[in-house]
Amino acid sequence: LVPEPADKKEEKKKEERREEKSVKSSSTPSGPTYNLDEVRFSCRKLLLNAIKGEGELPEGCSDEKCQDLATNLEAAIFGQFKQTSSKYKNQVRSRVFNLKDKKNPMLRMNLLCGILSADRLSKMTSEEMANDEIKKQREAFIKEGINDAQLAQVE
């Protein structure tokens, strides 16, 4: 066996420390138990900030409910991918972007009021989450494309 360089030994020690940290677990009162995986934790934090938003929370909505929603939403997204891959991260980013969209406050309100479940939001496509203006633009583009295709066939 060839001895490892000092920097590789140091990297291994850092990795072992990270693994030790991830073995510890935390749980929320109403949510599932998690390992303290840094990626999942930061994703929950991003989702929580997006759910809370900048304005006031609707009546009857507490910080605890927002935390539960963020935890459940992250768990539902993680359940789809079973790992913190780039697809998982993109799914989280997409939800954060759409929840923060100032032109689409109803998505956030529907989630906070219970009209939209965290599980349903985790499975929605970007088309389903889009604000009304974007939906109208998409419809117009589709109609325009269909009309262009029909004109091309006639000629």
Query: What is the SS-derived class?
Result: mainly alpha
Number of beta strands: 2
Beta-strand percent range: under 5%
Q: Determine the number of helices (DSSP H or I, runs of at least 4 residues).
A: 8
What portion of residues is helical?
over 70%
- Poorly predicted ranges: 22-36
- Shape label: flat
- Mean pLDDT across residues: 81
Which strands sit side by side, in order, in the main sheet? 1-2
Please summarize the sheet with the most strands: 2 strands, antiparallel
Structure description:
The protein contains eight helices and two strands; from the N terminus they run H-E-E-H-H-H-H-H-H-H. The protein has a two-stranded antiparallel ribbon with strand order 1-2. The termini are far apart. It has helices spanning 6-23, 38-52, 63-81, 86-100, 105-113, 118-123, 126-129, 132-154; strands at residues 25-27, 33-35. Helix 2 crosses helix 3 (63-81), helix 2 (38-52) packs parallel to helix 4 and helix 3 runs antiparallel to helix 4. The chain is flat. With 155 residues, the chain is mainly α. Residues 22-36 have low confidence and may be disordered.
Give the structure's gist in a few sentences.
This protein is mainly alpha-helical. It has helices at residues 6-23, 38-52, 63-81, 86-100, 105-113, 118-123, 126-129, 132-154, and strands at residues 25-27, 33-35.
Topology:
Layout: H1 6-23, E1 25-27, E2 33-35, H2 38-52, H3 63-81, H4 86-100, H5 105-113, H6 118-123, H7 126-129, H8 132-154
Antiparallel strand pairs: 1-2
Helix pairs in contact: 2-3, 2-4, 3-4
Provide the descriptors you would attach to this structure in a database record:
155 residues, two-stranded antiparallel sheet, mainly alpha
